[in-house]
Amino acid sequence: MNTSKLTLSIFENARRPNKKKLSVHKKVYVHKKKPVEQLIAIEPLVGKSNMKSENFAKLDILLQEKNRSSLLENTEISQLPLQILKGDLDSTKTEEIRKKYSSKKFSVPISKKELKSRVSQVLPIIPKLLEGKEELSYHYTHASEQRKKLPHTTMTSNERWDIPWDRYIGGYYGLRRQTFISTLIQAEYSGLLAKTKNKTLNYWTQDMFCTYVLANEVILRLIMDDMSLLKAEAEKLMKETVDYGCHVADEEEFADDLNFEEFQVL
């Protein structure tokens, strides 16, 4: 993206009009409607929900122990939640989570080749989501609400530390597979994403929007297929199994078995 154009667009609406000489006749005030943001097929949140899960209980202590500025300087932003999760996880907790789900069977791809094959069948949904032709899930709603809380057009480094990241983890698929799905989305639709004018996408940046919004839309549809669930049921399961994704799925095998040609397009 052209930096000069971005800078201009950020301040364009903030410019004050040039002063004009007073006229004898008063001009009739015309209310100008703000441009409607694209991606309007959004499913609203019902009531207020407490999305904070117990595996993030130590987050405040963790952040106090870290030097934020130095970590931010040496960490890719898309991997920041993973850094937080790694500091919050322990083997004791993982065993507790395994026992919690001992009676459940989740079909999680164990290799990149397997996951890529499955995702390729769902990827055509992305253009429809970006064009507002397909209804988005609560993931976009959360991302949009986060953007509206603050006046910045792009998320700042400090704001990234205050985001409840558990809202954006892809359920029992976990963050590792979610990040890989984001890579597949960007490899296929980076051009379309660059052309999409959307305040929430701009706020999160293309990389993070793909990881924490669009990748979750793909995972949602994979879960619907995995478990033969309706959309609302799959959304509920995603919210309830974030702890499994973080503590169990992300610790299990996820083989990097792509061949050279497949790797080249990523």
TrEMBL record:
InterPro entries tied to this protein: RTC4, RTC4_C
Restriction of telomere capping protein 4 C-terminal domain ranges (all copies): 129-251
Alphabetic keyword roster: Cytoplasm, Nucleus
Protein location: Cytoplasm; Nucleus
Primary location: cytoplasm
A single Gene Ontology CC term: nucleus
Task of the protein: May be involved in a process influencing telomere capping.
Family: Belongs to the RTC4 family.
Record protein name field: Restriction of telomere capping protein 4
Organism: Australozyma saopauloensis
Lineage: Eukaryota, Fungi, Dikarya, Ascomycota, Saccharomycotina
